[in-house]
Amino acid sequence: MGTTRDLLVKHGMYSHWLDPKLCTLQEKGDWKELVYEAVEGAEDGALRARFAAMTGASAARYARVKNWDKTESEFAVLSGETGRRGAQVIEPYLDDRAEHVGTRLKLMCRLGCLPTMERVAREEKLPPREGQCRLCSMGAVETTDHLLLACPTHDRHRKKMLAGVEAALASAWRPELMGMPETEQADTLLGKSTGAACSDDTINKHVTRFLKKAWRGRKWLTSTLNDSLGRDDTTWALRAHGDGRCKATGPTPRRSR
Question: Per DSSP, what are the bridge partners of residue 70?
């Protein structure tokens, strides 16, 4: 029984080892639910600790943005996801079939692999100054946050996005986006839940549409970098139709992290 004892200790249930009646007096279903909660809670804690130990910005963002709580029915894409912990549920934005390009760009933003100038310079081992944004004169490094929140080249599309996002936040009784710290602004745009599924969906639609239009406006730069450095960044986005569908890229993977 040593293994059983160790498992109980590991998942915070040692009291059930010391007093077996805590288990035997329960109905079987109640016991299974208790064990499930203990095991999943411990795994969630370990997962979040691993993310916290990582130094990458994308891991930190994922830990902040991801919903770790139990999935409520309004946020569940499939009925079997209701009640499951967030770490076991694929986020709804990945099932958006209307905005293929924008969804894939948002996924890249969340993973930290959108080929902005900052990433290109790092991957090509270029001097840090080469990571500056080529679309504006701010002298700032072109990061995902710069593209989302600051680059004046995208102002026209950004104003439309922010108007829709602010309205969605207001309907969810959340603070205004522009009143938040910059990091929290980017987290909200990239999927941190407002607590209301309809508001989250609205924000997602505005953000994915903005990303598609902003990246389309950057097409000349992406093409130039691909040609001069032998890269193959987001060629599927460069070939996109106006409705967000791609030519000659194959089906978009469904429900992939």
Answer: 85
